[in-house]
Amino acid sequence: MFYGGCSEEEIKKVEEECDATNEQYKALKKKYEHLYDEYIEARNKWIGLISFDLTLLDILANKLAAVSQCIINDITEIKKEGGV
Questions:
Q1: What is the pTM of this model?
Q2: 41-56 burial by CB neighbour count: b if 16+ within 10 A, else e?
Q3: What's the Cα-to-Cα distance from 52 to each of 26, 39, 56, 59, 67, rounded to whole Å?
Q4: 51: left (phi over 0), alpha (psi -120 to 50) or beta
């Protein structure tokens, strides 16, 4: 390979630096991939608590409406009986 006016010693030094940098890159990439895999695993585990599908949100709203109506009915009955 032609390196344009560089001595063989300079070329060897640069190649060694490149090899060392490449090894650092590989080590950091491996660490990054491990951390990213952990992130994806945690995200998948908790995604149901973070975001709602519109269908699930509709079901939740209907259930809450039914519960609140039961509470209102109970209060009305208690008032009719003179408990409050």
A1: 0.47
A2: eeeeeeeeeeeeeeee
A3: 38, 20, 6, 11, 20
A4: beta
pLDDT digits over 28-82, tens only? 999 999 999 999 999 888 877 666 677 888 898 999 999 999 999 999 999 888 8
CA angle 63, 43, 62 (to 5 degrees): 10
**Is 5 a residue whose pLDDT tops 80?**
no
pLDDT value for 3: 58
Q: What share of the chain is helix, strand, coil (3-state, %, to 5)?
A: 85, 0, 15
Tokens of 8: 């063989």
C-alpha to C-alpha distance for 16 and 61, rounded to whole angstroms: 64
Is the Cβ–Cβ distance between 61 and 55 less than 8 Å?
Answer: no
